Amino acid sequence: MKTAFITGASSGIGRATAVALAGAGFQLVVTGRRRERLEELAAQLAPAPVQVLVFDVRDRGAVQAAVATLPAELRAPDVLVNNAGGAHGLTPVQASDPADWDQMLDANVRGLLNVTHALLPGMTARQTGFILNIGSVAGQEAYANGNVYCASKAAVGMLTKTMRLDLLPTGVRVAEVNPGAVATEFSQVRFKGDTARAAKVYEGFEPLRPEDIADIIVFMVTRPPHVTIAEVLAGAQGAATTIVRK
Which Pfam families does this entry report, sorted A to Z (predicted)? Predict the structure, then answer.
């Protein structure tokens, strides 16, 4: 049975990806900060084999300690989905909160590196595997007030490209999915719990659903070893800020 390790699996794209990969016959390790949600997910997916790990990707020591508790086959997954991360705030750079910068850079960039670094020894030793990083349309083009979030997702894009080159001799494939507007908790987090403002982001058009991205992920990671779909841009809009609303 193939194995998949998914970060940020307690909601949104991560949760939908766990459901889709379980349906495709994968054994899962689902990770995040909210134990109750992860355990609920594991119960929902039963009898599919699911291991729950609770940690914050920003904490390198916690990541390493959690991975060390896994049996060897799960420390060398067939698929790693680096999904954990998010946006905090939507303000001009001169008015933004440096604490928000730290949240985004630590989760979106350092967190991705922390998890990847913890799992790569097993994957490279097996000479096979697939790392799929969740980027964003914001990493492809800048938009006003996006500043550090855009920069962090642009960093994910460049990391994906350089990781692909570095890992090519090992047989580990690396790819990226760059979603546009997806109806998840993303905007609630960005606007710090302002549900009314978050809801307006998705008004007047049909945004992507987490399941749409999960379908793309399953397709990408189940291609034969000689096929790498390196990058997908998935959007309900024409560009980051170009949305036709009804």
Answer: adh_short
pLDDT at 239 over 90: no
pLDDT value of residue 242: 81
CATH classification at residue 44: 3.40.50.720
> What amino acid positions are annotated as catalytic residues?
149
Q: What percent of the chain has pLDDT over 70?
A: 100
Q: Check pLDDT > 80 for residue 144.
A: yes
40, 61 Cβ separation under 8 angstroms: no
Q: Report the pLDDT value the prediction gives residue 200, as an integer from 0 to 100.
A: 84
Domain enclosing residue 170, as ranges: 3-234
DSSP conformational letter for 105: I
CA distance 106 to 135: 15
State how far the Cα of 175 lies from the Cα of 165, in Å rounded to an integer.
11
Position 96 in a domain: yes
* pLDDT at residue number 104: 97
Could you give the CA distance from residue 200 to residue 128 in angstroms, rounded to a whole number?
Answer: 43
Side-chain half-sphere CA neighbours of 69 within 13 A: 11
Residue 241 falls inside a structural domain: no
Which residues, 6+ apart, have CB-to-CB distance to 238 below 8 Å?
244
